[in-house]
Specification:
The protein is mainly alpha-helical and 30 residues long. It contains 1 helix and no strands. 0% of the residues are buried.
Length: 30
């Protein structure tokens, strides 16, 4: 499981965008 920490003041949208980008880089399909 890939864990992405939410930064202070970061929107959920930005968090999801970073998460999906990391998932694509690792080659994991959810």
């Amino acid at each position: 499981m890939i864990e992405v920490k939410r930064r202070d003041g970061e929107s959920v949208e930005g968090l999801m965008r970073r998460f999906s980008k990391r998932v694509q880089q690792s080659g994991v399909i959810l």
